UniProtKB/TrEMBL annotation:
<dbReference type="GO" id="GO:0010757">
    <property type="term" value="P:negative regulation of plasminogen activation"/>
</dbReference>
<keyword id="KW-0732">Signal</keyword>
<feature type="domain" description="Serpin">
    <location>
        <begin position="30"/>
        <end position="389"/>
    </location>
</feature>
<feature type="signal peptide">
    <location>
        <begin position="1"/>
        <end position="18"/>
    </location>
</feature>
<dbReference type="InterPro" id="IPR036186">
    <property type="entry name" value="Serpin_sf"/>
</dbReference>
<dbReference type="GO" id="GO:0005615">
    <property type="term" value="C:extracellular space"/>
</dbReference>
<dbReference type="InterPro" id="IPR023796">
    <property type="entry name" value="Serpin_dom"/>
</dbReference>
<dbReference type="InterPro" id="IPR042185">
    <property type="entry name" value="Serpin_sf_2"/>
</dbReference>
<dbReference type="InterPro" id="IPR042178">
    <property type="entry name" value="Serpin_sf_1"/>
</dbReference>
<keyword id="KW-0646">Protease inhibitor</keyword>
<keyword id="KW-0964">Secreted</keyword>
<dbReference type="InterPro" id="IPR023795">
    <property type="entry name" value="Serpin_CS"/>
</dbReference>
<comment type="subunit">
    <text>Forms a heterodimer with TMPRSS7. Interacts with VTN. Binds LRP1B; binding is followed by internalization and degradation. Interacts with PPP1CB. In complex with PLAU/uPA, interacts with PLAUR/uPAR. Interacts with SORL1 and LRP1, either alone or in complex with PLAU; these interactions are abolished in the presence of LRPAP1/RAP. The ternary complex composed of PLAUR-PLAU-PAI1 also interacts with SORL1. Interacts with PLAT/tPA. Also interacts with SORL1, when complexed to PLAT/tPA.</text>
</comment>
<keyword id="KW-0325">Glycoprotein</keyword>
<protein>
    <recommendedName>
        <fullName>Plasminogen activator inhibitor 1</fullName>
    </recommendedName>
</protein>
<dbReference type="Pfam" id="PF00079">
    <property type="entry name" value="Serpin"/>
</dbReference>
<dbReference type="GO" id="GO:0004867">
    <property type="term" value="F:serine-type endopeptidase inhibitor activity"/>
</dbReference>
């Protein structure tokens, strides 16, 4: 399947998750997801909104001045505010207490860096995470340590998270979040009813896929966007019913999924839940797996968070005052398997923080022009285009 025209939202129900902080936490993650899919409307994409909000929350704990103001404004909350670290702690605790859900936060810090006490204390309060010293002067060894950590905390689903070359001797910290989820459907799909059916992709083509089918009483609702687009929401519960999958899709087959992008918010999800009713439905959904890797730097920059990546503007002096820091990359990998039995999924998220004093490497590993100029007169002696370097 090149395009999966169903939006999947995994949610936890319960009054303990309905306060303002948790809604803002969810909303920010959904905003990142909404921005990311706009640049890839025709291809599969899976993100972990919780993982993104958590890693940037850890970065927020180390931010100061205009960088803190920017993160607080765009995320909708400040983990440096009184009582907020406890809210983050409770959210992580509630998630981790669910059967089939494992959540972990980690901080890998270069052994040469002395962290500010307030940053260390805040990490412990909010994320129950104690920084682990690592030697980034040996980037490949450091990468293996981090990949081993993500493998351990994702049930082995994500064993090669960070690619070779993503770390360097200028790396100072890597902020990490990992989630592993294994949910069994409350009423599993009967494998004998799975049939090959055509799945119509966003580009107009069709492909044959194994379609799982079930008939049961499910929470279902019909809704309309402000623009008048009709769409369906179906809830499929996992065992225990505190976890469920919401399936959201336009009613008309020729309406693009992007028409529903503005519906993605925690308040809208609450409204769906209030208005959905249990109805006997026949549900057919593809059996599928996804493996998504994404660098969220451009997505976050489009959302107005570009300063955290800026060598001249980023201020993370609450992390350390020894040298200025900036975020280099925000990476996420998500693996999902949805079948007749249930859903298995893992995500790993990392914010890689570099020294701003580092010399940024520029590699001309793509075509380039060259100009040889006599500066006093401006005369160009040579100019050229290099598409494929050749030695003589």
């Amino acid at each position: 399947m090149q395009s999966l025209s169903i939006l999947l939202i995994f949610t936890l129900c319960g009054s303990s998750l309905c306060n303002l902080f948790q809604e803002k936490h969810t909303d920010f993650g959904l905003q990142v997801f909404s921005e990311a899919i706009q640049s890839a409307p025709d291809r599969n994409l899976a993100l972990s909104p919780y993982g993104i909000s958590s890693v940037l929350g850890m970065a927020q704990l180390g931010a100061y001045g205009s960088t803190l103001e920017m993160l607080t404004s765009k995320m909708g909350y400040s983990l440096q505010a009184r009582g907020m670290p406890k809210q983050q702690k409770l959210l992580q605790r509630d998630l981790a207490s669910e059967d089939g859900v494992e959540v972990a936060s980690g901080v890998m810090v270069d052994r040469k860096i002395i962290l500010e006490k307030i940053f260390r204390r805040s990490l412990t309060k909010a994320f129950q995470s104690v920084p682990h010293q690592i030697d980034f002067s040996h980037p490949e060894m450091a990468r293996q340590v981090i990949n081993s950590w993500t493998s351990d905390h994702t049930g082995g689903m994500i064993s090669e998270f960070l690619p070779s070359g993503v770390l360097s001797e200028q790396t100072r910290l890597v902020l990490l979040n990992a989630i592993h989820f294994h949910g069994i459907w409350k009423t599993p799909f009967d494998p004998t009813l799975t049939r090959e059916q055509l799945f119509h992709r966003a580009n107009g083509s069709a492909v044959s896929v194994p379609m799982m089918t079930t008939t049961q009483k499910l929470n279902y609702g019909e809704f309309v966007t402000e623009d008048g687009v009709d769409y369906d929401v179906i809830e499929v519960p996992y065992e225990g019913e505190s976890l469920s999958m919401l399936l959201v899709t336009p009613f008309e087959k020729d309406v693009p999924l992007m028409a529903l992008i503005k519906e993605l918010s925690s308040s809208r999800i609450h409204q769906w839940r209030k208005e959905m009713r249990k109805i006997s439905k026949q549900l057919a959904i593809p059996r599928f797996s996804m493996d998504t890797e994404i660098d969220l730097k451009s997505t976050l920059s489009k959302m107005g968070l570009g300063d955290i990546f800026s060598q001249s503007k980023a201020d993370f002096s609450r992390i350390t005052t020894e040298e200025p820091l900036c975020v280099s990359k925000v990476l996420q990998r998500v693996k999902l398997e949805v079948n007749e039995e249930g859903t298995k999924g893992s995500s790993a998220t990392a914010a890689i923080i570099y020294s701003r004093m580092a010399v940024e490497e520029i590699t001309l590993d793509r075509p380039f022009y060259f100009l040889i100029q006599h500066k006093p007169t401006g005369a160009l002696l040579f100019s050229g285009q290099v598409n494929q370097p050749q030695e003589y």
